Amino acid sequence: MIGGDRFAEALMAAVSDPAVRGLPVAGCVDQVVDAVDVLTRPDRARAVTAAALGLTT
Hints:
Blueprint: H1 4-14, H2 18-21, H3 36-39, H4 42-53
């Protein structure tokens, strides 16, 4: 989306929870992996997302 960063900035400015504000900005798990066996299993999708963000599961 052209100029999509302004929407992301507006949304982040509206977040009041400091724990959420401290998380890195990221897209969907399907931007990181294109494997059906991951995308159809929520536990695996969460693990990939956490690894991509440097978080623990």
